[in-house]
Amino acid sequence: MASVAGGTFVPTYQGLSPAHVMRLALSKRSESKGTTPYPFNAPHRLSYYRARNAIYHLFGALVETKPSLTVLAPDYYSGNEIMALQAAGARIRYCPVGPGMQWDPSEVERLCRTHAPDLLYVIHYAGWPQPIDALAELCRRREMLLFEDCALSLLSGTPDGRPLGSIGNWSVFCLYKTLPLPNGALLVQNDRPIESLERLRLRQAGSASVAGRMAELFVQRIRGRVNGVGAALQAVKRSLGAAAGALDVQRANVGDIGFNLDEVDLAMSPISARLIERFDYEDIRRRRIANYQQLARELDPAVAATFPVLPDGVCPLFFPILVPNKAEAADELRRRGIDVIEFWNDPVGDGSEMGPNARFFRAHVLELPIHQDLSARHISYVARTVSSLDLRMAA
Ligand SMILES: Cc1ncc(COP(=O)(O)O)c(C=O)c1O
Hints:
- This protein has helices at 18-26, 51-65, 80-88, 105-115, 132-142, 195-199, 207-225, 227-246, 270-276, 281-298, 326-335, 356-364, 376-388, and strands spanning 45-48, 70-74, 91-95, 119-123, 145-149, 170-174, 185-189, 304-305, 319-322, 341-342, 365-368.
- It is 39% helix and 12% strand.
- The relative contact order is 0.17.
- The strands form two sheets. The chain has a seven-stranded mixed beta sheet with strand order 1-7-6-5-4-2-3, with helices on both faces. A four-stranded antiparallel beta sheet has the order 8-9-11-10.
- Among the domains are: 34-199, Aspartate Aminotransferase, domain 2; 281-388, Alpha-Beta Complex (Aspartate Aminotransferase, domain 1).
- Helix 2 runs parallel beside helix 3, helix 7 packs antiparallel against helix 8 (227-246) and helix 10 runs parallel beside helix 13 (376-388).
- It has 13 helices and eleven strands.
- With 395 residues, it is α/β, with parallel strands linked by helices.
- The two termini are 36 Å apart.
- Helix 5 links the parallel strand 4 (119-123) and strand 5.
- The structure holds pyridoxal-5'-phosphate (PLP).
- Residues 50-52, 78, 80-81, 123, 149, 151-152, 174, 185 line the site of pyridoxal-5'-phosphate.
């Protein structure tokens, strides 16, 4: 495990190994490991550079058929999906999330009566399913469309084995959050393919965006194993980035919060498309679940997990916990080499749509890494470090 100059590094995201790329060079499509699961085998799937681009194009097409398209969305969101909906011209109304980061179908129904939305925008947070059957039933009854935002829920499913994203009319997946890819998202049209979307011509992102992110993925992986070498490589990478900047090469970022109309037509890069065919998805799921369970066992029980259990079928993206002071805890954990994520600090606009639970989550949820690249020793380090800080929520 990475441990140089007294430091250990636990990266936020999975890295890319030379083995991934070797496999790419050596293998044929038919040699991919295991079977390719949903959404990669969905008949009507379209790829994009980022999920927000897919959301923009889908909702743009829906607004074209109904200019007053009204969407009921949760009041706890990343911001990227809301900005994409707004840019596409959709009207947004909000429904508060409950204390377990879940929608209460009866509250959703009440707000459907108030706002008469055309479409329900469901977000499955960090792999945990929303009560999707009740929400789908509500949509059928009220003749509403159903969209599943699975940006954070790739490879996750219901306890009875249905993949998240396969139940709504459409779903979107952000691939680079779960897989070591420089970019990539999928839009799945489950039962009402819109033809204009299939005809859309996307353009390639500049090679600096792809090469820069590939370099970061390699460096992340090395840093997670040998901190000193990785830190040195990070410096090299930074100077490469600076060189690209000096040449005025435009870079389209991934993993940020924002929306740029100039970048909505970017395509997923060919290297992402080829890597996708070669991952061992069953192994990725298994490792994420095992890491989550190990952390749940080893964390001081006084640390509050956001979700009390890991239900069957869930492929966790992170281990979300509640902490009294998010910014302070995040700084302290980063100082100790754990690259945590502050789960959605800011609303879009003035935040007047937020109910008390969304406000609480923005103030208190921190995500601990549990991705497939982390070993049992990384997870023990995270458990020990988090448990050693006083992160108990007030009773
Ligand atoms: C719930 C949700 N939807 C959509 C997106 C947009 O994903 P992308 O970064 O691929 O545009 C994100 C990413 O932050 C997200 O968290």
